[in-house]
Design brief:
Layout lengths: L1 E2 L5 H14 L11 H9 L8 E6 L2 E10 L9 E8 L8 H15 L4 E7 L3 H10 L2 E12 L2 E11 L4
Parallel strand pairs: 4-5
Antiparallel strand pairs: 1-2, 2-3, 3-4, 5-7, 6-7
Amino acid sequence: MRPAVAGDLGRICEIYNHEVLHSACTFDTELLEGERSRAWFRTHSPDKHPIIVLEAAGEIAGWASLSAWSGRCAYDKAAETSVYIHQDHRGKGYARILYEALIEKSRSLGCRVLIARLALPNPASERLHESVGFSEIGLMRNIGEKFGRLIDVRLMDMQLDEM
């Protein structure tokens, strides 16, 4: 596990773009590529909103990041989490490893609240988030539409000051 560098962007995008095309775990419908991917990477400074990668068998097996929850400064101590695992590396516990590292990094950066948005149904992701300490704070019904279906989103948070 290590901080992501610009040279990792191709593999990070490969993992993410698979989900764009094949899953509702992201509501993105455009591939992350070219200048758009480089701009996205630049918004993730290591001292505020880092991206970390997990390597296995000589390749990046997954990545995790913190993103600004809102551009308003009152939300500076809150961050949204993302964790993505390459389809060939699922079921090996890598998402938990990345999440635990992301939580530790969040604390060291002074973050107070982590927020996750889970497209439903996704029992594996729900179990993962609950197991690392997230709690449900709400449900947004029919908030997204992808692949011709309406999708609910479960909002979860982790209060780092309470853990």
